[in-house]
Design goal:
The complex is a heterodimer of chains A (535) and B (193). With 535 residues, chain A is α/β, with parallel strands linked by helices. In chain A, 37% of the residues lie in helices and 17% in strands. Chain A folds into 3 domains: 208 residues, Thiamin diphosphate (ThDP)-binding fold, Pyr/PP domains (Rossmann fold, 3-Layer(aba) Sandwich), CATH 3.40.50.970; 106 residues, Rossmann fold, CATH 3.40.50.920; 169 residues, Thiamin diphosphate (ThDP)-binding fold, Pyr/PP domains (Rossmann fold), CATH 3.40.50. Chain B has a single domain, classed as Pyruvate-ferredoxin Oxidoreductase, domain 3, CATH 3.40.920. Chain B has 7 helices and 6 strands; from the N terminus they run βαβββαβαβαααα. In chain B, strand 5, helix 3 and strand 6 form a beta-alpha-beta unit. Chain B is 40% helix and 22% strand. Classes of the chains: A alpha/beta (535), B alpha/beta (193). Strand 8 of chain A pairs antiparallel with strand 2 of chain B, so a sheet runs across the interface.
Chain lengths: 535, 193
């Protein structure tokens, strides 16, 4: 078996390549972006598949469903909150007669290293009533992805692979196997299987429900869901899920006795194995990365004969990531103490906009333009520019979800507030700002949209945007914004005063105005120059 | 044998390259490696850390536990103190003495140096000056790999080969500068305190 050193994201991508994908679609989002980046980077070497960034996670998912319909295998990848955007096609696609293997790779971010929340995608898999696989190592990210494609084709459902930050962004040696050929184009013969009219959907829903027993049987028998019983020790048993296994094993040598242990990597929850564990112990300790998904299922509402401990009773922290340290208490181990630092904590060093970043000059101009307007509202969005909330700029006030700056500004304007400015990046605007702007134009809301166009998806590492910047103005014009109130500015320090005047005039205009601040991301520019210099 | 390293620095200082070089060198020597990285927002000039684990046996956790690291290797002085609770009492701290002052409340460097020197085992390296002497200020992180190298369970030759492999696509000059930076860091640590 050839060995490679790969990030969890990359191992998953390699698994998809070797499973014989014909296409992969994604929208960038930490910690999932490296899946698509790897697929694109190795494409010249490994094969003839499509690997594309899409406008957003929903279009990405729908494109993958189209691939499946004509019989070929597709991978679609996104971060956890991206699945909220793709939730509509995802949940519904569980009803379809999935034909070519369809695998959804979703990377959760417990601890919110680079996210707005820490939602747990296992709930989505359960909501859609499909199978979810959760690797605990890079090697498993590879093998499970291969298996996910087989499952998808065997059960005719989309299959979810759930990664979390630490597995997505950690490197280890991965053994790879034989590459499988792609499926030929072979359109699904299931006529009603792709049509969610009420009459057909009811039938498909009933079929999905009746298949649940087979999914459960698969999870019960899966060698990934291991149960080891220690009949001589009844005090407590352990259930681990995902990376919970890693941190449990990291500490296991310090336990005086090895308790009975069930590890869950394959969902639905293998209830038979859980019952066998429960019969062997008086108390079950649940260590899982993310929300208390398994623990809540165990607890139910009515009392059980077995004690249950985990996040719900506070024995483990309810927020953030698991670590080798924070699982010690629940196992009865003392905390480890390192060198005690004499009393002075190093000052915090939060992330900040780069020196030379165009957003800095845009925010200077915006703050100048708004001088004297009190109160005012500046809604914003998701990207590097969200850092404009922090000093020194303190220019923006909101961040909800991709595209929300536009809709929130419209709502506030219609509620009678003035002035309202929405600040959004070019990639975020293309992801989900466009529809909000259509709404604003339709109702003539009195607001100004400032699009920070740095011609890239900067925060996630500089992926290309779906439309080149030169076409952004045409797009805004096409949505019906008054051409006289679409302004292009170049955010440079020397132009700040002039830019501030332009923004101020548009804020004073009663209606929808759009200012596009166009200058390349300093990081992307550096990389491009390096490439051009042949480094 | 197991050797755990916490790598620290500020986004943009090349912490991930340091991790990549040591990991590659360790694998050449037949060790197993697990290396966790931080991507996304934190990379923008903020505090960054990476956990690097080298071992002869299977490694199960991507993260290093508290009081378990054999080394803290930091590209910046105050960043070296941020993760002290992860260091074993007998572990070593190797840090660059050159501050990155991109925050308003940066303490007096002398105060930081004193604190670092008060640890049982610590080495402070004037990495920027050495990198400059080696031929490029951008080779600061390779000075720090050199400074860490005598304590790592990895052969010097394997680390030099890793530098060669990682920088070869950038041309012979870049390789030469980085190898020189490594050597200067290695020499400097022998006389550092």
């Amino acid at each position: 078996m050839p060995e490679m050193v790969l990030l969890g994201d990359e191992a998953l991508a390699m698994g998809a390549i070797d499973a014989g994908i014909s296409a992969a679609y994604a929208y960038p989002g930490t910690p999932s972006s490296e899946i698509m980046e790897y697929l694109q980077a190795v494409r010249p070497k490994y094969g003839d598949y499509v690997a594309e960034w899409c406008s957003n996670e929903k279009t990405a998912y729908e494109e993958a469903v189209g691939v499946s319909l004509v019989g070929r295998r597709a991978l679609v990848s996104m971060k956890h909150v991206g699945l909220n955007v793709a939730a509509d096609p995802f949940i519904n696609s569980a009803l379809l007669a999935i034909h070519g293997g369809l695998v959804l790779a979703v990377a959760d971010d417990p601890g919110m290293h680079s996210s707005q929340n820490e939602q747990d995608s296992r709930f989505y898999a359960d909501f859609a009533r499909i199978i979810c696989l959760e690797p605990r190592s890079q090697a498993e990210a590879y093998t499970m992805t291969r298996e996910a494609f087989d499952l998808s084709e065997a059960f005719h459902i989309p299959v979810m692979i759930r990664l979390t930050t630490r597995i997505a962004h950690s490197r280890a040696v991965v053994g790879t196997g034989q590459r499988r050929a792609q499926n030929p184009v072979n359109k699904s013969a299931e006529k009603a299987g792709w049509m969610l009219l009420p009459a057909t959907a009811r039938k498909l829903w009933a079929e999905l429900l009746s298949a649940q027993g087979r999914f459960l049987e698969y999870a019960e028998d899966s060698p990934y869901n291991t149960l080891e019983l220690n009949r001589d020790f009844r005090d407590f048993g352990v259930i681990t899920a995902g990376l919970g296994w890693n941190y449990y094993m990291e500490n296991i040598d310090e336990l005086p006795v090895k308790p009975s242990h069930l590890h869950i990597s394959v969902y639905p929850i293998p209830v038979g194995k859980v019952r066998r564990l429960a019969e062997a112990v008086e108390r079950i300790v649940v260590i899982e990365e993310g929300f208390s998904f398994v623990e809540r299922a165990l607890r139910g509402i009515l009392p059980t004969g077995v004690g249950i401990s985990g996040k719900e009773d506070g024995a483990l922290p309810r927020t953030g990531e698991l670590t080798p340290d924070n699982v010690r208490g629940i196992l009865g181990l003392e905390p480890k103490r390192g060198i005690e630092l004499a009393p002075v904590q190093p000052p915090a060093r939060p992330p900040q906009l780069c020196a030379g970043c165009p957003h800095r000059d845009s925010y200077d101009a915006l703050n100048q333009a708004l001088a004297g307007f009190e109160p005012r509202l500046v809604t914003s969005d998701i990207g590097c520019y969200t850092l404009g909330y922090l000093p020194p700029h303190q220019a923006i006030e909101t961040c909800l979800c991709m595209g929300a700056s536009v809709g929130m500004a419209k709502g506030a304007a219609q509620a009678g507030f003035h002035p309202v400015v929405a600040v959004i990046g070019d990639s975020t605007f293309l992801h989900s700002g466009i529809t909000g702007l259509v709404d604003a134009v339709a109702s003539g809301a009195n607001m100004t949209l400032l699009i920070l166009d740095n011609s890239t998806t900067a925060m996630t590492g500089g992926q290309p945007t779906i439309l080149t910047s030169s076409r952004l103005e045409q797009l805004v014009r096409g949505l019906g914004v008054e051409p006289d109130h679409i302004k292009l500015i170049v955010p440079l320090r020397k132009a700040t005063e002039e830019n501030a005047r332009i923004i101020r005039r548009e804020i004073e205009y009663d209606g929808v105005s759009v200012v596009i601040a166009l200058r390349d991301c300093i990081q992307t520019l550096k990389q491009r120059k390096k490439k051009e210099a042949g480094e | 044998m197991r050797y755990d390293v916490i790598l620290a620095g500020v986004g943009g200082q090349g912490v991930l390259s340091v991790a990549a070089i040591i990991a590659r060198g360790a694998m050449t020597d037949g060790l197993l490696v697990r290396q966790s990285e931080v991507h996304g927002m934190a990379q923008r000039g903020g505090a960054v850390q990476a956990h690097l684990r080298l071992s002869e046996q299977r490694i199960v956790s991507d993260l290093i536990g508290k009081a378990s690291a054999d080394m803290i290797l930091s590209m910046e002085p105050i960043e070296s103190l941020r993760y002290l609770e992860y260091l074993k009492p007998e572990g070593i701290l190797v840090a660059s003495a050159d501050p990155v002052k991109n925050i308003p409340d940066y303490p007096q460097p002398e105060e930081i140096y004193e604190r670092i020197r008060s640890l049982p085992r610590a080495r402070l390296i004037g990495s920027a000056e050495l990198a400059q002497a080696a031929g490029s200020p951008r080779a600061t992180n390779m000075v720090m790999v050199g400074a860490a190298s005598p304590y790592l369970p990895v052969e010097e030759g394997s680390l030099l080969a890793a530098i060669e492999a990682l920088f070869s696509r950038k041309g012979e000059k870049v390789v030469r500068i980085n190898r020189k930076a490594f050597r200067m860091g290695r020499e400097a640590v022998a006389s550092a305190s």
